[in-house]
Amino acid sequence: MNKMKVLLICGSPRKGNSETLVNYLAQKLKEKKVKNEVVLLREKNIKRCNGCVEFCNKNLYCHIKDDMPKLIEKLKTFDAYVFVSPNYFYMPPGIFKDFIDRSSVLYTAEYDLSKKKAAVIVVGMDVIKESNKCVYNIAEYYCKTMKMRIVAKKAFKTNSELKGNYNDIFENNYNKNIKKDLEKIVEKIIK
Question: What is the reported pTM?
Answer without folding.
Answer: 0.95
